[in-house]
Automatic annotation (TrEMBL):
InterPro entries: 6-hairpin_glycosidase_sf, 6hp_glycosidase-like_sf, Beta-AFase-like, Beta-AFase-like_GH127_C, Beta-AFase-like_GH127_cat, Beta-AFase-like_GH127_middle
UniProt feature coiled coil, ranges: none
Protein name, per record: Glycoside hydrolase family 127 protein
Domain (Non-reducing end beta-L-arabinofuranosidase-like GH127 C-terminal) ranges: 547-658
Organism: Paenibacillus vini
Length: 660
């Protein structure tokens, strides 16, 4: 599968967003929301114009650093990254559809960023304004390369969208400066950032500029990570033990930032979840560009550990609030879960890169799971409220109360955060959704996600236009119309058979097309033929309601069941079922009825069943009693898609329900 040459690229090329037009009943709402509400709202938030929300200071920091205003730095040490992610989201919107007014705002911001850059290329408002003279002295904690990486990603996206080089030139100068500072040569810092991000960003910069210096620098940061003695400990000693954060753990807890071992020797997902997933995305990118089999093998080992032992059914990852981190295999509590929205976005990044390397449906299945559940669920339907943490069980009485182990869990989405990484991350992912639907490798077009619209895909020297139509995720009937540039062109169209689908069928121009071992490879049905203009492929995926059970080692879910239909995980919410959801029991033989409710939460398929409830109102035994409860009573229960919860006010919610 992979080459061994030092610079042998083995991945599929990016599909430009202006060649993919999404027209989809489910996703049109969210993409329009990002364009018309989310991006303008976040611009207001970044400019401190949202009443009642935590101030950002991000735009003002750049204005002060540029000499346009007076004042002090405000916010977190990584505040610059919020600006970069917003700009990246804007770039994807502009690439998909021109918007002169939005582009003018972005150009004005880029002018300010350029003015804030130092003559030597350095760009960071925190160290410019708050700790001048302390550049690169605390790599473990202070996110300098992380902020640089996000600005590089924004610049690459903006150049691709508009052809304008100003921000690309800014980040190229910055990357050249970084290259002059870091390395194993005498006089350079043999270090790497505490929060991975620069690695994947430098690969993007290499791809758009062709400058191999940036690819080598990305590989250096990956190769250097985990070397002994610890670079972070060396810098901590040089600072006389001074730390940025009160805990001071980031410089000495090497597992937290995945610097405990060289990256190729790591086999278990551990530490801060977003950092690990950004690192793995960079590793997959470098493996793709260089043919490095050892990096790819390391990616596979950590992928397997994450998805088979440390991932929630919703695609959430990072179960532990301490350090926003992975904990240990099968430790997946539902009520104290962290599952940061950014971590699921990082999982999607990683899955997409693995798909480009190896088109196996397991990667697209996880990408789809995280996208339709945690990521969409991370934003309210009004586009102005967000989840940082994504619990699978909530009792509002516990949130913000005396038991501080629930302090991180919010029963409703928040307007903004002091650490506001998640909202712009959601915006940039949804704005770039067109990049995740298809890939092309050789003479094969792979369809990974079932999202309606039209795509013009380059296949060798010619083009193929695909028109996709479906009512996904509410039903599993997908129609693909094929229009090759040249009639009779021979190529393969590969369509994913999702892991949740046990029965699938194909029709080609109205006639049944066999699905057998020779047809389905790595989870994709491959149709190789000489395609004619207007050929129609119809994929039918049966979409029954599935009762999902956990591995026996997941203690939190013992004796419980969750419901899934298609890619969507379901939950009980107080708005439909009243309080005390812990009393609900779902009999194993209960009929599960799925029906579309057009007026509910924008139109969803809800699931109803005849369940049972404890008869707690008749309990008279005090706090404890040798007598059991008086039994159960019949109760109709309704499940809604998990992504849609908390859009109807504060209340209880649970994904996992006791099974009788």
């Amino acid at each position: 599968m992979c080459g061994t040459g030092a610079e042998q690229s083995i991945h599929s090329a990016r599909v430009p967003l202006n060649q993919v037009k999404i027209q989809d009943e489910f996703w049109d709402y969210y993409i329009k929301l990002v364009r018309e509400v989310v991006v303008p709202y976040q611009w207001d938030a970044l400019n401190d114009r949202v009443s009642g929300a935590e101030p950002s200071g991000a735009v003002r920091n750049f204005k002060i650093a540029a000499g346009l205003e007076q004042g002090d730095f405000y916010g977190m040490v990584f505040q610059d990254s919020d600006i970069a992610k917003w700009l990246e989201a804007v770039a994807y919107l502009l690439e998909s559809q021109p918007d002169p007014a939005l582009e003018e705002i972005a150009d004005g911001l880029i002018d300010i960023i350029e003015q804030a850059q130092h003559e030597d290329g350095y760009l960071n408002t925190y160290f410019t304004l708050k700790e001048p003279g302390q550049r690169w002295t605390n790599l473990a904690e202070c996110h300098e390369l992380y902020c640089a990486g996000h600005m590089i990603e924004a610049a690459v996206a903006y150049y691709r969208a508009t052809g304008k080089r100003k921000l690309l030139d800014v980040v190229s100068r910055f990357a050249d400066h970084i290259d002059s500072v870091f390395g194993t040569e005498p006089g350079k810092l043999a270090g790497y950032d505490g929060h991975q991000e620069i690695e994947l960003a430098l690969v993007k910069l290499y791809q758009v500029t062709g400058n191999e210096r940036y690819l080598r620098l990305s590989r250096y940061f990956l190769d250097q990570r985990g070397q002994k003695p610890s670079f972070y400990q060396i810098q901590l000693d040089e600072r006389g033990g001074k730390t940025h954060w009160p805990s001071g753990n980031e410089a000495i807890d090497l597992e937290y930032n995945q610097s405990h071992l060289p990256v190729r020797e790591q086999e278990t997902a551990i530490g801060h979840a977003v950092r690990l997933l950004y690192m793995l995305t960079g590793m997959a990118d470098v493996a793709a560009e260089t043919g490095d089999e050892s990096l790819l093998a390391a990616c596979r080992k950590l992928w397997d550990n994450i998805v088979s032992r440390q991932m929630y059914i919703t695609g959430g990852v990072g179960s532990m609030p301490q350090g926003e981190a992975f904990s240990f295999d099968y430790d997946l509590p539902n009520d104290t879960v962290y599952a940061e929205t950014c971590a699921s976005i990082g999982l999607i990044f990683f899955a997409q890169r693995m798909l480009k390397l190896a088109p196996e449906s397991q990667f697209a299945d996880v990408m789809e799971r995280a996208l339709y559940n945690t990521v969409v669920g991370g934003m309210s339907r009004d586009g102005k409220h967000f989840f940082y943490v994504n619990p699978l069980e909530v009792d509002p009485k516990a949130c913000g109360g005396a038991n501080h182990k629930y302090d991180h869990v919010k029963p409703v989405r928040q307007e903004w955060f002091g650490c506001a990484c998640c909202p712009p991350n959601v915006a940039r992912l949804l704005a770039s959704l067109g990049e995740y639907i298809y890939t092309v490798q050789g003479d094969t077009i792979y369809t990974h996600l079932y999202i309606g619209g039209e795509a013009a895909l380059e296949l060798g020297e010619s083009k193929v236009t695909l028109k996709q139509a479906s009512n996904y995720p509410w039903d599993g009937e997908i129609k693909l119309e094929v229009f090759p540039e040249q009639a009779g062109e021979k190529f393969t169209l590969a369509v994913r058979i999702p892991g949740w689908c046990k029965q699938a069928s194909l029709l080609l121009n109205g006639s049944a097309y066999p699905l057998g071992d020779n047809t389905v490879v790595n989870g994709y049905a491959r149709i190789e033929r000489e395609w004619q203009s207007g050929d129609v492929l119809e994929l039918r995926l049966e979409m029954p309601v599935l009762r999902m059970h956990s591995h026996p080692s997941v203690r939190a879910n013992a004796g419980k069941v969750a419901l899934q239909r298609g890619p969507l995980v379901y939950c009980l919410e107080q708005a439909d079922n009243g309080p005390d959801l812990h009393e609900v029991v779902l009999p194993r033989d209960a009929e599960l009825k799925a029906a579309k409710e057009e007026e509910l939460l924008g139109g969803v398929v809800a699931i109803s069943a005849e369940g049972l409830r404890l008869r707690d109102e008749e309990w008279s035994g005090g706090l404890y009693s040798p007598e059991p409860a008086l039994g159960m009573k019949q109760a109709t229960v309704k499940f809604i898609p998990y992504y849609a919860w908390a859009n109807r006010g504060e209340g209880e919610m649970t994904v996992w329900v006791r099974e009788q």
